[in-house]
């Protein structure tokens, strides 16, 4: 299967606390949660819905899995007008969580993967696409292990000024090829990249 990621990110690279609740993620004194709520237009909502529908399976980091399980795992279609297709996909497709701490996942239909080999084995299975949503720490780890085939960044036009960022100040470098790009009427950009090895730097 192809492994793809979809991450909502601010202009300054923050991924922490994007969800609907301002107190969703208060780690390290973060106080500016909910920055992605209501930001995109119908074009972006439709793109996200279609993306979830395309998945054959989902892979989450531990924290994102716990957040999704506590929210999407207990909702009905009446609770999420406009996002019914996302809810159906999350509940009908196989789910995997990359974690060495979870041994008995609460959300039925979830399998724990505890190392690189297990994720590589999942990728080797026949099928279309295993998707990673959110899960910033997992996305960085997957990129470092060359396990990401495509990376979608949904960039919200806001500078949050605090919080955990998708990429650290120092870390491994990676060249990216642009596969797809669009911008909606509210300034939300969607860009799909394909990893392309290390960047080339001038020699003099």
Q: Tell me the number of structural domains.
A: 1
The best one-word shape is: globular
CATH homologous superfamily caption: Dihydrofolate Reductase, subunit A
What structural class results from the helix and strand content? alpha/beta
Fraction of residues in helix: 10-25%
Largest beta-sheet details = 8 strands, mixed
Strand order of the largest sheet: 4-3-2-5-1-6-8-7
Q: What kind of assembly state do the chains in view correspond to?
A: single chain
Instruction: State Rg.
Output: 17 Å
Corresponding CATH architecture: 3-Layer(aba) Sandwich
Topology (SSEs and partners):
Layout lengths: L1 E9 L31 H13 L2 E5 H10 L12 H9 L2 E4 L11 E4 L2 H8 L5 E5 L2 H9 L5 E7 L19 E8 L5 E7 L9
Parallel strand pairs: 1-5, 1-6, 2-3, 2-5, 3-4
Antiparallel strand pairs: 6-8, 7-8
Helix pairs in contact: 1-3
Description:
- The chain has 204 residues and is an alpha/beta fold.
- It has a single domain (2-195), classed as Dihydrofolate Reductase, subunit A (3-Layer(aba) Sandwich).
- It contains 5 helices and 8 strands.
- Strands 4-3-2-5-1-6-8-7 form an 8-stranded mixed β-sheet, sandwiched between helices.
- Strand 7 (176-183) and strand 8 (189-195) form a beta hairpin.
- Helix 1 (42-54) runs parallel beside helix 3 (84-92).
- The N and C termini lie far apart (41 Å).
- The model has no long low-confidence stretch (mean pLDDT 90).
